[in-house]
Amino acid sequence: MKKSKFNESQIVAILKEDEAGLPVAQILRKHGISHATFYKWKSKYGGASVAELKRLKELEAENSKLKRMFADLALENAAIKEVLSRKL
User: Fold this and answer.
1) Per-residue pLDDT band at 88 (split at 50, 70, 90)
2) pTM for the complete prediction?
3) Which of 56, 68, 78, 82 is most buried by a 10 A CB count?
4) Closest listed residue to residue 38, CA positions, set 20, 57, 56, 12
5) Which region, left, alpha or beta, applies to residue 17 given φ > 0 means left and ψ of -120 to 50 means alpha?
6) All structural domains of the chain with their residue ranges
């Protein structure tokens, strides 16, 4: 998937322009984005602030770290159970 040339804070700033009352067509021309991109961003980031997005990224990173930890421990637990069942 192609990486966006805009980061989350820039996207929020663009969406704030829409909330301020600028015409959508003018915003699209100014930033060089399509209607589809604008409305996709609006559905994903609409009403969010930069601080909320930063916190969301932190929580997603923490969640993925915890999922990896759980997977490692589950694998280790399964291996230990297998070894113990062989000894009995």
Assistant:
1) low
2) 0.65
3) 56
4) 12
5) alpha
6) 1-48, 56-88
